[in-house]
Amino acid sequence: MVFIEGKPYWTDGIGQIPYAVNTFRKYWRETKQVDLAIRKTGETGMTWGDGKAFTGPDKGPQDVYDNFIILRGSLWASENFKLTIKKETIYDKGIPHGLEIANAIYTPSSLQKLKSSIVQSDLDKYGVWK
User: Fold this and answer.
1) Total of domains in the chain
2) What pLDDT is recorded for position 1?
3) Is 118 a member of any domain?
């Protein structure tokens, strides 16, 4: 266990936060949709969270503690990163092709989503393990 601001947390659960942030950013860049990126982050966490995705998830939806921490990390990332889309033109044999490059840039806003419990509306919307 570890203490964060005087509250105990399971150490391996806290390890889900960097996973959630990085995975959320990946899916946000790909989909350009916050809600979909949060849901896909949770789904990926259930599939791969135990490291046994090739043989089947060990706990998946039943690993509720990790799922809540992943959701908290995703919600925090959705408020603390900004999606930027840059349009570029590349040339292939002289023919121009339009290209969009999406990036999720850290723009600190609030720690509230990491400090607070999941509210029912977020659980209803993103609780893919239910």
Assistant:
1) 1
2) 84
3) yes
Q: Find the domain containing 78 and state its range.
A: 8-126
Asked if residue 22 belongs to a domain, the reply is: yes
Q: Which residues contact 36 (CB under 8 A, 6 or more apart)?
A: 27
CA distance 92 to 76: 40
- Please give the Cα distance from 21 to 77 (Å, whole number): 6
Q: Does 40 map to a domain?
A: yes
Rg of the chain's alpha carbons, rounded to an integer? Answer: 17
Residue 39 covered by a domain: yes
Q: What's the predicted TM-score (pTM) here?
A: 0.82
- Give tens-digit pLDDT for 33-60: 999 999 999 999 888 766 565 555 555 5
In order, the DSSP letters of 71-109 are: HHHHHHHHHHEEEEEEEEEEEETTEEEEEEEEEEEE---
Averaged over 19-41, what is the pLDDT? 97
The Cα–Cα gap between 50 and 18 comes to: 15
Separation between Cα atoms, residue 63 and residue 9, nearest integer Å: 15
